[in-house]
Amino acid sequence: MDISFSQENSPTADRFFASATERNIRSPGAGTGWRKRPGPQRGEEPSSREVIPGNAIHGRAFSSLCLEAFEEPILNGRAPGRRRSAGDYRMTDIVFVHGMFQNPKSWENWIRMFSDKGYNCHAPAWPLHEGDPRSLRDNPPPGLGELRLKDVIASIEATVRGLGRPVMIGHSVGGLITQILLSRGLLSAGVAIDSVAPNAMVDFDWGFLKNSAIIANPLKGDEPIYMDAKTFHGAFANSLSEEEAARAFEATATHDSRNILRDCMGEDGRIDLDAPHAPLLLIGGEEDEIIPAHLTEKNHRAYKDEGSVAEFVSFPGRSHFICNEPDWEEVAQTALQFIERNGVRAGSGARSIEPM
User: Are residues 354 and 210 in contact, defined by beta-carbon separation less than 8 angstroms?
Assistant: First the structure.
């Protein structure tokens, strides 16, 4: 199931990438290159929460880095040396990628919001994750336990290549997939929420160790891991009441393959963190029992290219169910502000040359 919402094409287009003087790049200063303001309380306006560059300097933006990172960059909505035509103007595509124990149902609120803002939204299901979550729980698809990360990446990449260089917003393993496809030069920007960290990064938080061990248990072989309401509340949606978590479980939860998380820790989950990349925002939830916020911050600190935009922001009181728990709009608005602040706006999509 691929949930898609479209809007009419805009007659005008902004720059696909902002000019160098409009953008801040990471400082070569104190390691992360970014600092964040103290976390907001719920109900606070998202604009007051913007991550601000630490020791920021003005310089080359990703638009100029394209000349080095890609064979044929897209600048100002068109390829260099080619006159702009009416076909160059189209809606900006956003691809939403779910994580383990979820499917496209989990993105319905976000799709509605971003569609209302003028974006063309896509939410492809992972293989063996199409359909109603309750039906998938009652009748697990044959072969679910054998599903591998490389199969999921290939499926999502096929969608992305059909759209040029879209924006991607991913949650959990979907966040890692966002980081992987960003590293391959296939995206114009990425937002990774509670992302499984690449390159086998781990955390010694008890919740992380416990949940990772349960999911990846090697003694279980290819047996799927079956999600139940109690586990969903305790590990996935621990910031909700029991009643709220039960409703969320019924509406969105699926079973999944242990091999997905195992593969995230292996070669398929590796990224060159020193290479130039399109703008990336990493978001963490401070009550997340599966991907602790400080692991997401560690993930952010691992990006080393001084000419690329990488930001991190954490939300207090948020669990791994951050994309759908109360006040999810604040998280979505933060993602939207990042995307538009970094030169990608609704109606500014460009006809893309085939990516690398």
Answer: no
